[in-house]
Amino acid sequence: MTIKQDDIEKIAELARIRISDKEIGQVTERITEILHMVDRLQAVDTSNVEPMANPLDAIQRLRPDEVTQGNRRDAFQAIAPAVDNGLYLVPRVIE
Amino acid sequence: MHTKSVAQLMQGLRERQFSSVEVTRAYLHRIAALDSQYNSFITVDEAAALAAAAIADKRLAAGDGAALTGIPIAHKDIFCTDGMRTSCGSRMLDNFIPPYDATVIQRFNAAGAVLLGKTNMDEFAMGSSTESSFYGPTRNPWNTDLVPGGSSGGSAAAVAGRLAPAATGTDTGGSIRQPAAFCGITGLKPTYGRVSRLGMVAFASSLDQAGPMAHSAEDCALLLNTMAGHDPLDSTSSTMATADYCASLGDSLAGLRIGLPREYFSAGLDAATGACIGSALQELEAQGATLVEVSLPHSDLTIPTYYIIAPAEASTNLSRFDGVRYGYRCDNPTDLHDLYTRTRQEGFGDEVKRRILVGTYALSAGYYDAYYKKAQQIRRLIKQDFMDCFEQVDIIAGPTTPGPAFALGAKANDPIAMYLEDVYTLAVNLAGLPGMSIPAGFVDNKPVGLQLIGRHFDETRLLNVAHRFQQATDWHLRTPDSAQGGQQ
Amino acid sequence: MQWESVIGLEVHLQLATQSKIFSGSSTAFGAEPNTQASAVDLAMPGMLPVLNEQAVRFAVKFGLGIGASIGKRSVFDRKNYFYPDLPKGYQISQFDAPIVGRGTFEILLEDGSARSIGITRAHLEEDAGKSLHEDFHGQTGIDLNRAGTPLLEIVSDPDIRNAAEAVSYLKALHSLVTYLGISDGNMAEGSMRCDVNISLRPLGCETLGTRAEIKNVNSFRFVDKAIRYEIERQTAILEDGGTVAQETRLYDADRDETRPMRSKEIANDYRYFPEPDLLPVVIDDAYIEAIRNTLPELPADKRHRFHTQYGLNTYDANILSATRALADYFEAVAADCGDAKIAANWVQVELLGQLNRDAHAIDNCPVSAAQLGGLIRRILDHSISGKMAKQVFEAMWQGEGSADAIIDARGFKQVSDSGALETIVDQVINTNAAQAQQYRDADETKRKKLVGFFVGQVMQLSKGQANPQMVNDLLAKKLV
């Protein structure tokens, strides 16, 4: 699998990570190496093998529908970068 | 004081030979005196530690001490600690002071343990050398030109340098066992789901597991008794009953069948390391165990499988670090996109960004089946290899790493070489099995670790084998020269 | 060219749980910003989701309500995208293995005919928070109280053909989920939100055209208007030989138009994969059967029963079965008075009329079913006339008590004493001798018309209290 700088830029956009023009070449090179390494898997026949998401193949427990969490806004917002009137602030979002 | 095991400290505290304040002060003094060599701690709050120790002493005096009352413990800086910075080794969380404790921390608090400090680690636990920390690399107490391993390198170095009697770590692909091996200590990665992940900053959810790091198997068992157990707030936490992990430490090894995977003793293994492992296995044989050659045929696929699954899960686990609710936020974002992309560019280090990009790629449209789904299928094959082996043997043994600790900087710019360090440890996480590393000798004054792998939830057996081995050997009792001095 | 519109709806239904789908925070509406956002909802580091049993139960109830297959092993997935109201950077949803599979349900069109609409699937997911665009020094404020509220996303097949059908579908869905008690269905509070997928194709063509998705249309009226607008817009484009862009649009109620959403311009790749912090949800037959046993009679069944049991027409049966409370009310009135048709008429005309005027819900109707039943009984036994009954109803609405009490207090009782009535009838015939003669000379048909005059006179003299039936009988006897 070859990967081009364009592809890296697309992925970086999906991941919301800025990569400077200076870095992009090396990042592409490193990721190419890693993808080359993992490409070995393509050769393995996995037909009829069920994908394993959890090592114990366990099943979900369910929680009773009870309110157990109270208002801790002050504690949570004390560590927030920008708040006003109980709201988290971000640069204006246009819909 | 600092040469005592956790078990000895517990006895001394119970018998009032010394107080928790004295023990805690002794370790704080050693940290202040010696840690400039190692950089094993990110945060130490002396006043808080001493206050906790004073409370522990009151409990002990009142006769209501719990399992670990008064014992100072260092915690990897991945466990959220209420009111104390939890950085995960990253600039992203350099200013993050959680308003809550991880379940593991709660359990240590309830047991009366004293929080000594938070230890250094690879950023977001992604690494095998503790060089990618925002707070600078940790150094190996056996030779400060060497890495301590990672990602729990701070905890391993702190224990090896005797700056803490015991510590916690987390292991996603070897991050407890590999640094334990490099630093000559004992480390246990429990079965996936044995220890709660709540409040532990997530790297790869289906692989992450917390465990103890200490000098001996006995001390690891004492810590695991406190750490293990069901947590209703972690859906992946097991409801399987826990055991008293100290109860069977001394059981005989007669009749024990130990599997030696052919693939773990092949060309990639350093010869001198292999020799140490060979001698260690002879010791187990001498105690009545039988060595059986086994095979894990999909071993050569563990690295590629792991390096799809772990980055894929990490890429989305780390999406929450967006500069909105906590943690780092870039200066003067021009718009929302700038806020996101620059916060994450500046807040994450290179290896973390690399893994996020690889993981994003593996999950992206058109590649999911070829990468992520494929890796999940091969993951099942890898687990099945172990299940087949455990039909024939009780535990599996082999080297923890292909060779001893390497020099600082040697692999820092070569991710693939770094990934190869974990060739013997990754499969255990993929299969969700418990694994240990115990000191098994030295190569050029560099520690070598013997890895033991057990059946799911059979931590008892691993600890038993490790303890019996440690009764007959003294590798785990050696102290590095750099740890001399520092007494009050 | 004749164009056919093809419409599918995605309804996001808030489930009426006490706590959130993955955390123990309250889901109550209207709290101060971020006071119901826990560490889990805020995606604090290390926080993990645990699934709410009630959300699963409600989803299964819905599935049984539309006769769908229930996913015995459903899986949660992460849907990855960045948005400030989505704290984790992914939404926990279901992709490949939803909890509710294919089902159908019946809707009733305006002309009274029924249609079956296919439900592709329904899956559980978590709601996002809210972005508040009021001015915070040029910034957007984020309230995460709603983040983590359980949603059931109900996806219809593209079986809908016009705005009216879409509205009928939504009304039927609203009726079903409130019957099941799984949602309050309150559209004003966002408990039921709708995305509309709409495309046009030449009539008779089988392949689908390019669709636009209109996001978050939040009332029956807006769904109607948005679809009408969008059909016009797409028709105009296609008539001009243009092509419709596949895009996400927003309905602007103020301008009554749809326009493209700017924030969704960047093509998203959601990178779905199984959520590793949650495990597969396994549901067994016993669990499903236990829930099936708690199901109430559903709207369509009730509508059919009203038709067969009470002889109501489809239109009346549909209105009276729209909500469980109204249906129960109607049946209580019918049982009390013993005449379902009159009961249906009173409930639909007088009761619903008053409820609408006073903007009351049936749950806090000032007139009880027993009161209304009592009133209808007095009509049936001729104690009062229909006209009087309306006045009695007015009085009941004002809280003046039972029908009998009001009739007594106001002296509304009909005069049914034949002696007293005879006196009045005689008096009317005597004072209107000319008209009486006219009546006698007339044939049967004319007589029927003429008798009304005498009835009116008798009613006037009796202040409307004369029993009309008795008056008619007496007049027929005495005029000849």
Any overview of this molecule?
By secondary structure, chain A is α+β, with helices and mostly antiparallel strands. Chain A contains three helices and three strands. Chain B is globular. In chain B, the strands form two sheets. Chain B has an eight-stranded mixed sheet with strand order 4-6-5-10-11-9-7-8. In chain B, strands 1-3-2 form a three-stranded mixed sheet, with helices on both faces. Chain C has 480 residues and is an alpha+beta fold. The chains are: A alpha+beta (95), B alpha/beta (488), C alpha+beta (480). Chains in contact: A-B, A-C, B-C. At the A-B interface, helix 1, helix 2 and strand 3 of A face helix 9, helix 10, helix 11, helix 12 and helix 13 of B.
Please work out how many helical segments of chain B DSSP would assign.
Answer: 15
Helix content of chain A: 25-40%
Q: Outline the biggest β-sheet of chain B.
A: 8 strands, mixed
Biggest beta sheet attributes of chain A:
2 strands, antiparallel
Shape of chain A: flat
Question: Using only CA atoms, what is the Rg of chain A?
Answer: 22 Å
> Helices and strands of chain B, in N-to-C order?
HHEHEHEHEHEEHEHEHHHHEHHEEH
For the termini of chain A, the CA-CA separation is: 37 Å
Counting DSSP H or I runs of 4 or more residues, the number of helices of chain A is 3
- Give the low-confidence spans of chain B: none
Mean pLDDT of chain A: 93
What is the strand arrangement across the widest sheet of chain A? 2-3
Write down the secondary-structure element order of chain A: HHEHEE
Residue stretches of chain A low in confidence (pLDDT < 50, at least 5 long) are none
> How many β-strand runs of chain B?
11
